[in-house]
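tool=predict chain=A
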Amino acid sequence: MYYRGAQAAIVVYDITNQESFAKAKNWVKELQRQASPNIVIALAGNKADLASKRVVEYEEAQAYAEDNGLLFMETSAKSSMNVNDIFLAIAKKLPRSEAGGGPAGRGHGGINVAEENPQGARKTCCS
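tool=predict ok
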């Protein structure tokens, strides 16, 4: 239910915890079985800043990702390593849609972030 209509998903596991990697594999299977056939799935090995405590080898996770057609990166939420990069990689893999934004590409437009002073908006932040 949470991923119905999703265009992308990031499945995260802890590189210092083998059980979290096994659970991540189960989530990948679930997404492949239940989600849209065109969903972009990324596998993120988090806590890369704790490489000295690594239990899940990079090569093992990378091979799993390749075998299942997943994007793969190791990340660190603590140091922000590869956090932006994984989102950018997902965005590059998403199909372009003329339908606009919104859930699953439905809807039109959104917020125009380029507009400097929308009609009726104040120029000061705290008055």
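The first helix runs from residue 18 to 34. Confidence is low (pLDDT under 50) at residues 104-124.
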